[in-house]
């Protein structure tokens, strides 16, 4: 025990090592972004819909412009993201979605900067900040990382919220805090709760005048925000026991989602782990905040609570995570049930919850317990970060390839399901696409619009099987390794070609087991599988091809197989 304590004391003095450990997850995050990010509309059409603010904006009246900026989408007022889209277009003549992603991820980085500002005021060793960086710079929420508009919305609202909480807790700058709360409100839907949280912190700490000013501004902002809102969608039914049970489990699962690992998993085991983790986080918070609970409850009745600035900040984070969790389950449970709460773009709130716990532990625990807590969380944070990187990197790559494929399918099929779902014409899609000027890599070297099912091939590629599984068409080829050379747009894509339609599927590659990575230094497994949802494939006779993209160049291979899609 003496040797271990001596080792810890010696290690604590190695600030350079702590700084290196802080830099490493940022480097891994940046490297992942550089490798995968593309100037392409994500697999949903949100980017296309938001860029729809551009046509006619310059010639509109000021009132019409305001309506365009604040038009609900669907329950959010996306003034921040739309303003950046317009600024990019009018300054540079186009909107580079990659630039929007960069700005969004800088907001994520800015949140870490706010956390560090809080940490610096605590005057602790840099080692205590190491867990924050490893827990924050994961790729669990890669939907936001690589999605132009979503990154601005989801990461932007976090930055404005964190800044508001910092100003109200550390600098006592009410004006700055309220301006940040206003910015958060018109960045994403849950941003309006920042006003409520600021008012709550002001009340329990006895700042009555500031509390009433904040409440008055909140009422005014809420009136403007909800004025003209469309009819609300179905929400949680408190009289339904099943929905209540799913909501309760979903609340803790949402908070503990970091241990569900796979961002798209619907397996009950990892989702159950997330629920257990959320419950554990709640228990940990009560344990470290326990001594403050009596004075906390007294503060609700009007007796000011003595709470350090870092403690106020941590408490604000807790409320923000809890309210956001409830808001999501209130909206999502009736629409998709328990599993719908685990979308990749929601996972960032689990990381935020752990940062809240850590800052709270540094504030409310005694020195010796604080040291043990930090050691445990350093190990936990590193393991979680690397596990999430291993589990989700392949899925993130597949999603970017899927985005390339969706643009291809939308461009060359005027009756594409995505266009019909969003009541969008192909001409409108091409108009919006001209604003961000994405490449069309899968169409290089051949003409997808050719009115024939026969394409010139450089050779033959044998598929292992082509079959219908449930409501999907699956094409498998599992014998060869395929490595991206120029970028992760490279890879084998399956094509269905008839005289009137052409559809592409991304490779859908998977990661090898961890021990195989360590032994062979390979990440992707052999082979690929093309998947087409039958609702997106019009009836007809299709020849099947493999488009092999290597080093940025396309080669088409015949498979000598045909697929008949019935009426």
Automatic annotation (TrEMBL):
<keyword id="KW-1133">Transmembrane helix</keyword>
<protein>
    <recommendedName>
        <fullName>Glycosyltransferase RgtA/B/C/D-like domain-containing protein</fullName>
    </recommendedName>
</protein>
<feature type="transmembrane region" description="Helical">
    <location>
        <begin position="16"/>
        <end position="38"/>
    </location>
</feature>
<feature type="transmembrane region" description="Helical">
    <location>
        <begin position="145"/>
        <end position="168"/>
    </location>
</feature>
<feature type="transmembrane region" description="Helical">
    <location>
        <begin position="210"/>
        <end position="229"/>
    </location>
</feature>
<feature type="transmembrane region" description="Helical">
    <location>
        <begin position="351"/>
        <end position="367"/>
    </location>
</feature>
<feature type="transmembrane region" description="Helical">
    <location>
        <begin position="373"/>
        <end position="391"/>
    </location>
</feature>
<feature type="transmembrane region" description="Helical">
    <location>
        <begin position="244"/>
        <end position="264"/>
    </location>
</feature>
<feature type="transmembrane region" description="Helical">
    <location>
        <begin position="271"/>
        <end position="290"/>
    </location>
</feature>
<feature type="transmembrane region" description="Helical">
    <location>
        <begin position="310"/>
        <end position="330"/>
    </location>
</feature>
<keyword id="KW-0472">Membrane</keyword>
<feature type="transmembrane region" description="Helical">
    <location>
        <begin position="174"/>
        <end position="203"/>
    </location>
</feature>
<feature type="transmembrane region" description="Helical">
    <location>
        <begin position="97"/>
        <end position="119"/>
    </location>
</feature>
<keyword id="KW-0812">Transmembrane</keyword>
């Amino acid at each position: 025990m003496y040797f271990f304590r001596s080792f810890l004391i010696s290690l604590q003095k190695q600030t350079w090592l702590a700084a290196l450990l802080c830099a490493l997850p940022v480097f891994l995050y940046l490297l992942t972004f550089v490798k995968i990010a593309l100037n392409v509309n994500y697999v949903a059409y949100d980017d296309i819909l938001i860029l729809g603010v551009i046509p006619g904006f310059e010639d509109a009246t000021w009132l019409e412009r305001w309506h365009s900026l604040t038009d609900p989408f669907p329950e959010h007022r996306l003034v921040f993201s739309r303003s950046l889209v317009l600024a990019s277009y009018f300054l540079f003549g186009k909107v580079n979605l990659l630039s929007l992603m960069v700005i969004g991820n800088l907001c994520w980085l800015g949140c870490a900067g706010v956390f560090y500002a809080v940490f610096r005021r605590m005057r602790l060793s840099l080692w205590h900040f190491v867990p924050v960086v490893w827990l924050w710079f994961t790729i669990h929420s890669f939907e936001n990382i690589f999605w132009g508009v979503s990154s601005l919305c989801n990461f932007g609202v976090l930055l404005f919220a964190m800044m508001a909480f910092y100003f109200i807790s550390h600098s006592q700058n009410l004006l700055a805090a309220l301006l940040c709360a206003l910015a958060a409100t018109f960045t994403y839907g849950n941003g309006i709760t920042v006003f409520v949280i600021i008012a709550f912190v002001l009340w329990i700490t006895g700042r009555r005048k500031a509390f009433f000013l904040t409440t008055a501004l909140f009422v005014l902002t809420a009136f403007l925000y909800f004025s003209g809102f469309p009819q609300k969608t179905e929400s949680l039914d408190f009289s339904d026991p099943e929905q209540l049970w799913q909501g309760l489990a979903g609340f803790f699962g949402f908070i503990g989602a970091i241990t569900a690992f796979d961002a798209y998993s619907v397996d009950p085991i990892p989702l159950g782990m997330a629920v257990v983790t959320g419950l554990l986080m709640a228990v940990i918070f009560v344990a470290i905040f326990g001594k403050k609970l009596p004075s906390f409850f007294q503060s609700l009745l009007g007796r000011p609570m003595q709470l350090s600035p870092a403690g106020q900040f941590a408490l604000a984070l807790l409320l923000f995570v809890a309210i956001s969790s409830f808001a999501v389950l209130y909206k999502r449970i009736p629409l998709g049930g328990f599993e719908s709460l685990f979308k990749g773009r929601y996972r960032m709130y689990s990381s935020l919850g752990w940062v809240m716990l850590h800052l709270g532990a540094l504030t409310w625990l005694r020195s010796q317990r604080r040291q043990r807590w930090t050691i445990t969380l350093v190990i936990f944070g590193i393991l979680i970060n690397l596990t999430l990187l291993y589990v989700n990197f392949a899925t993130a790559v597949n999603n970017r390839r899927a985005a390339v494929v969706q643009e291809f399918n939308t461009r060359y099929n005027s009756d594409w399901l995505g266009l019909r779902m969003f009541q969008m014409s192909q001409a409108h899609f091409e108009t919006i696409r001209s604003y961000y000027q994405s490449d069309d890599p899968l169409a290089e070297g051949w003409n997808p619009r050719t009115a024939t099912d026969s394409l010139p091939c450089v050779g033959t590629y044998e598929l292992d099987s082509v079959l219908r599984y449930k409501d999907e068409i699956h094409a498998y080829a599992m014998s060869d390794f395929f490595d991206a050379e120029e970028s992760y747009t490279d890879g084998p894509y399956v094509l269905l070609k008839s005289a009137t339609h052409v559809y592409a599927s991304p490779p859908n590659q998977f990661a090898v087991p961890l021990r195989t990575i360590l032994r062979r230094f390979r990440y992707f497994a052999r082979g690929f599988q093309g998947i087409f949802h039958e609702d997106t494939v019009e009836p007809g006779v299709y020849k099947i091809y493999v488009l092999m993209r290597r080093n940025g160049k396309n080669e088409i291979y015949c498979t000598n197989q045909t697929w008949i899609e019935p009426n």
